[in-house]
## 1
Amino acid sequence: RSSASSVGTILTNLQHESATPLPVLRHVADAMTEDMRAGLAVEGGSDLKMILSYVDALPSGNEKGLFYALDLGGTNFRVLRVQLGGKEERVIATESEQVSIPKELMSGTSEQLFDFIANGLATFAEVEGGNFRLPHGRQREIGFTFSFPVMQTSIDSGILMKWTKGFSVSGTAGRDVVACLNEAMERQALDMRVSALVNDTVGALAGARYWDDDVMVAVILGTGTNACYVERTDAIPRLHGTMSASGMTIINTEWGAFSNGIPLTVFDKDMDAASINPGEQIFEKTISGMYLGEIARRVLLKMAEEGDLFGRRFPEKLTTPFSLRTPDLCAMQQDDSDDLQAVGSILYNATQKVESNLSSRKVALEVCDAIVKRGGRLAGAGIVGILQKMDQDSKGSIYGKRTVVAMDGGLYEHYPQYRGYMQRAVEELLGSEISRNIVIEHSKDGSGIGAALLAATNSKYE
Ligand code: ADP
């Protein structure tokens, strides 16, 4: 083992290679805009799939009745019901439940996963309290949020292209996920119907728009990441002139697959090579919650292997992939004590009882900061890429008036430093005048109610 200087060198290199000065951000934002255009021009024309959502109408506030939502998108599976009362009464009641997905189901068979979901839904639907009323003779309708890349074929069907975010379930890719769910519901004798299949970003956009007409973009920053926005049908060459009645539609960008101009370190490249999808989801791997902790782990491990980050003791546990999690980085960065107590105890746990001194703790914080700063700033550049595309095509009607970007996801919600870096990057890119019109805010309802609202908008009874 060599000296403290190699720890310093590793840190300096990390900071240098992950730096995102304004010109880099500008390049990323411009490349995002260009990739969006290329994806809208031809199918497969870009890293960005620019998936048609078949959502051509957003909630107006007039929706009424009982609707269900079901959300599969990552570490958890959520079921929800909502009783909508129209413009005056709005959301009369909601109830929801969350079930964590057993790890083995994330790499099991399609039937096992969908049976588990249908079973959770059946259990939840069994107990419908007094505030919820389904008109006689109606089937319960579901908005199904499924946040993996799906090629939609209509509002209520879509083919799974590939699993992401650590899922590798066999037998679903290439199939209609609504059919998979319907078959599982039949096996449970559960009489419900999916009336809208929505990506979680699309659900978040719908949920936020229900309360605020200026919402034009939705971004999810959780385990994974994605963004969608309101597009004019006449700006989608791939549609060959097919217009929706409203003249608009929501485009699911699948921006996690973006890769153009992202500054990558050796740690990112190694993590990517070891991942289940090497070379894919590069933007996601630099900005989303699943990966930030893992990148930091790799840096700290190298500092322990090649330097003396933890003195003479080798932190064996740090060799385990994903043993340091993004919430750990977040907790470390909230520590404002003089001796960095909390940082010390998180490192102690992460290394299985290797003590750290104050200077190692400071280094660990610098590592977290470099990774989180890049993540937040790149996310901000991505948002500007979308806004810029919309503004160019609408002759200034995005930057020139109040425009809301609805944010959702655990990373955005819980990580103040990340949020701050993201917001400041947007301001740097747009300048102070335009940024005053751009409101980036946490979406109140999350994607859950949004999906139920889209089930209402697309109800077979309307
Ligand atoms: P999903 O798994 O569906 O994306 P969420 O939107 O709730 O669910 O996001 C969960 C992710 O958010 C976690 O995987 C983690 O990366 C991140 N996260 C959760 N809590 C925190 C936290 N306290 N600090 C930082 N990141 C967090």
## 2
Amino acid sequence: EEFIQRMPKVELHAHLNGSLTTAALLELGAQKYGSTNEELEKLVESFKVMGESLDECFKKFKIAHDLTNTREGLAHATLCVIRDFAKDNVVYVELRTTPKQNENMSKTEYLECVLESIRSARKEFPYIIVKLLPSIDRSQGIDSAKSTMDAILKLHKKFSDIIKGIDLSGNPNVENFSNYKLIFETFRNMNLPLSLHCGEVENEEEIREMIDFGMARCGHGTFIKESNLQKLIEKRIPVECCLSSNVKCGTVSTYDDHHFKYFLDNSHPVVICTDDFGVFDTTLSKEFIIAQKTFGLSKEQLFTLSKNAVLSSFASEEEKQSLMQMIENYFMK
Ligand code: 5GP
């Protein structure tokens, strides 16, 4: 366990508002409402999810969203998430977030606030590289996706060192990927790689469409089967596996049944990720420990998983090389 804790880790699938711990939410609450009160503590406790459905999980984000709807809250939340990843010896993280419009901020301002917070966190946390994958939330419809795209288009040049790709997330039971294809084509033409939440629920047709459309990485990939699975494997599309998230949301019944094992056994690039470490009360180290206990991972497999993560990341070649070096040094000593 200590070996995993100290291991330099790479996180590729983490939603900003889902990565706020109880402590971070209370900090944000105190900042916003003056002092923490019982009501807030109760709300924060209810934020933790245990054995509920995917739809229930989505309701849980609301409390975080209420605390990050000001610039001050959002900037502090970004800092909390980076701090908590750094504390867990994560050396590279790709955060994701859907820009939100409210009475305090436009979508562009939301995105800029997160990007600037990431940039300014470099001084305080010099040992972690932080990138951002702005997210399109599929449940909000096409018009909202277009205005999210506009915000990304406005900022991606100024923050080209941080914006490294685009995510499609949001409730998979709402709307269909086909409606968003044009938008994702625009991003692809800008050389922004795509990480799509794919196969979180059973939907053979949509999974096929996503794989045919093409993605740099696949989020979850829980229900990818038969010919779709063959295609995913042929194309060597890395899969981001979030063990606790899937078991706690009930899309996978037990850790033993997790599809992570299939990809591991078939030497397919698979990456261990947290998804929402606040909501699911976990850390990247804990996820590795769960995987190690459940599947009896050897040190060599831990090494392979670490290398998979670097190779599947959207970091620059130079960054990949230095991350690889760091990981090799750790495993070889
Ligand atoms: P945010 O984008 O607000 O920073 O992070 C929270 C959001 O990420 C949620 O509202 C949801 O849209 C998305 N999200 C978090 N976890 C999951 C997940 O497991 N599956 C999907 N499809 N979306 C998620």
